[in-house]
Specification:
The complex is a heterodimer of chains A (298) and B (277). With 298 residues, chain A is mainly alpha-helical. Chain A contains 14 helices and no strands. With 277 residues, chain B is an all-alpha fold. Classes of the chains: A mainly alpha (298), B mainly alpha (277). Chains A and B meet through helix 1, helix 2, helix 4, helix 5 and helix 6 of A and helix 1, helix 4, helix 5, helix 6 and helix 7 of B.
Chain lengths: 298, 277
Amino acid sequence: MTSLSATSRASFGERNFKYLLIGPAIFVLLLIGIFPLVYLLLVSFQGITMTETSTDFIGFANYTQLFEDTRLWEALLHTVIFTVTALPLELLLGLAMAQLFLERLPGRQIFIALLVLPVVVSPIVSGATWSLMFNHRFGPINQIIGWIWGEEVTLLWTISPHLVYPAILAAEVWQWTPFMFLLLLAALANVDKSQLEAAAIDGAGWWRTFFRIVLPAIWPVMAIAILIRGLDLFRLFDIVWALTKGGPGTMTETISIFTYIKGFQQFETSYTAAVAFLVIILLSVVVMLALKRVELSR
Amino acid sequence: MMTVKQRYALRTGVRLAAAVAVTALFLFPIYWLFMISFKTPEEIYSFPPKWYPGRIHFDNYAVLFKDGDAITVWNSFVVAGVSTVIAMFLGTIGAYSLARFRTGGEYLANWIISQRMIPPIAVVFPIFLLYVWLRLVDTYIGVILLYTAFNLPYVIWMMRGYILDIPRALEESALVDGCTRWQVIWKVVFPMCRAGLFATAIFTFVFAWNDFIFALVLTRTEVATYTVQVTHYFGGQSNFWAKISAMSVLGTVPIFIAVAFMQRYLVRGISLGAVKG
């Protein structure tokens, strides 16, 4: 009897061991993953603002407001603009740099180690650094442009409406091009050499070789790099916050900055909940679709 | 007519020049940040800008320590450090479950990594409302809890990859030798993926250390991290430049040192394990 119960207890433990291991992690993830979703949904049907503390349910008012809020859709548009401009730039520059460092070169490892540094700097620090660099009077950017131009220039990089986008893009591209570079360098190094040699023997030109052999070979890694960076860009906050805080006016407001301002500066609690809920749903759909297409796991 | 050897030398020379130019371009902002932190106020606000300080001086750092602002670097260290240890433990045993027992299949693994990709602002808003209610705003526990949760998907995902790299036979022979399941994890799995554990822990630490948005929302004065402190010097008076740069350097140097130790795992770490590098 005792031995029997001991055996069944052992097999019970054995069967549940895997759940025991993953359990705590799932618990914490549900706490942060599911709770906010449920709570957001609840609050988004209430009418809480800075002055209104009543928790009565007001129906879909916040959601209908979403559709009429041009500032929200503009913020979404800005986010898309940043994504579709920064991503190709980072990709192409990263690819060019990877080509440069692919073959043997004296000091190659040192160059690569140094080029990595921007990636690990905190984005808020790189934003701060670039705002020092872009200062119209005491920063080096206008000074250098002045040298090239031949006379002093006073470009207001973080204030002037037609300069803020280039300024933010410069900081963003500076920080993340090395990310693309590192991944693509690893991918290029794994391209089958014998195929390249065969192409060379057949007399295929550089472009032809690139599009026929190299690109298909590095595409899986490229797709992952685009996915990771694309999702990062969609939640762009720090660099813009440091450089313009979304200004001038709301010109560079991204969806993250818009949400922050609504929730923590204007205290439109329930409306912000609706916005945040929309963002989570939108992103979850995109992520799930993307994960199906991209081989992120083995 | 150039010989093949000469042409190769010329090509290498051109590539080397390009490499130096590109590297200089990417390092220049970092140089500028560090250099400003060693300048005197007169040098910072000189026109045209000076490209190097007259002499290296540390007054800008001394001010941060004297005023107590440097405590925010310690706060960053505490919240990033503690959350890394917790996330590494919970994440690694969870990853073991996913890797060896295929718990929940691909679906669970994908759900876990997708948690990582949700915009932080959308998550932190309801968490903030909850923390107000639980009185967890501006406490170590509150920030550590969120960083742990935020980094768990990363740890699970990365460690799953590293554990899958370990041959299964080792664990089976340990089980046959009479080890319990827990002993197998402690004595076989952890030592076998030591390098992976180390690399993942560093990345986890760096993510928490570099975070701004969570700390901006969830801290006030008591546990403000260095990234939040940097932004406290924004705007307003322009004589805060010295503090912006010095505080940024204090927060950046530890990261550079950490990364120097794990060059080999960098590609795998930043590509979410997709590229083994």
